[in-house]
Amino acid sequence: GGWIVIDALGVWTRIACMPDKASTSAASAPTPPKHLQSTSVLDVDAALDAIGCGSFHFWTVTAISLFVVAQSIQTNLLAFLPPCAGAAFGVDPDAAALIASASFGASCITTPLFGACADAFGRRTATLLAICIMSVGGLASTAAPTFGTLVLLQALVGVGLSGATCPFELLAELSPSAARGRTLNSVAWAWASGTLLTVLLAWVVLSVTAEDDEADAGGGKGGHPLPVPWRRLVLVTSMPVVLAACVLPCVTESPSWLLAHGRRSKAKRVLRHMDSVNRGGALHHLKKLLAPRHKKPAAATAAARHFRDGGRGP
Fold it and tell me: Contacts by 268-276 with C-beta closer than 8 Å and gap 24+?
């Protein structure tokens, strides 16, 4: 027999023409079509398509670009920090490479954890956690009293770097399907910009303050190194991270994630906010897309139960 799909806010229900009991069994019950197994995402995508791109996406891309710039700076800093800090602490150049190894090693270990965090607590939450960890690790590194402490703090920065994909997930789920590819690709310039900015800052801080070279090699009194150029470099390169940490809380949560976790009213508020910022006038359309699910007629409910049971009797 034929069947009808009633789709309301991600809940699919199938109603079959009543078959003969002899010709139907639980084993032969058909599976739901693949395109209906995630109808909540399709509903949000339809709303995002109705809203379109606008000012909301411009500011969201800007905020996430700051995150990517910060991530790029913290990664490329590892090309300058080990030799400079190693010389300041009197550490062998080969041993100084432990700074980069600790950062990348911590990132490799904790990357899956950020994926689980983004699924369980939200894309926005995981993004904020990553940038806050990077900020704390970077700023604390400027005051590291020993080489070992610096290695541990840079490993903490590596933990923050492991959340690199979280803002991309968030941006993808805030973008209309027709413009999702180019919206995500528009953030790519931020990584190259961060690389260039790191090289520029390293050139300014490490070369202009050449009078501190002797302090770099000898360290300060009591075994503590003086405020040498590498500390200034770490401090300066931490500023974009702090800026990103201040801006990213303004980014909203993914409506797809909210809807998938049962927070339907919050998802509607996010979509209405996006529509109002974009001034697209799609609010009336959103009411239809995310309208409350009405109670199904008794006949439809009985037919759906009969279909779910594979055609078996009550």
Answer: 271/44, 271/47, 271/48, 271/51, 273/56, 274/48, 274/51, 274/56, 274/174, 275/51
Q: Per this entry, what is the length of the chain?
A: 314
The residue behind tokens 């960890």 is 133
Pseudo-torsion of CA 274, 248, 250, 278, nearest 10°?
-20
Q: What is the pLDDT of residue 287?
A: 55
DSSP 254: P
| CA 11-16-21 angle, 5° bins | 130
59/44 Cα distance (integer angstroms)? 20
Whole-angstrom CA distances from 275 to 46, 269, 279 are: 13, 10, 6
Nearest in space to 118 (alpha carbons), one of 156, 161, 163, 158:
163
285 pLDDT exceeds 70? no
Instruction: Compute the CA torsion angle 193, 198, 200, 201 (nearest 10 deg).
Output: 130
User: What confidence category does residue 191 fall into, taking pLDDT thresholds of 50, 70 and 90?
Assistant: very high
**Buried b vs exposed e over 239-260: b needs ≥16 C-beta within 10 Å?**
ebbbebbebbeebbbbbbbbbb
CB atoms under 10 Å from CB of 210, counted, come to: 10
Q: Cβ(291)–Cβ(5) under 8 Å?
A: no
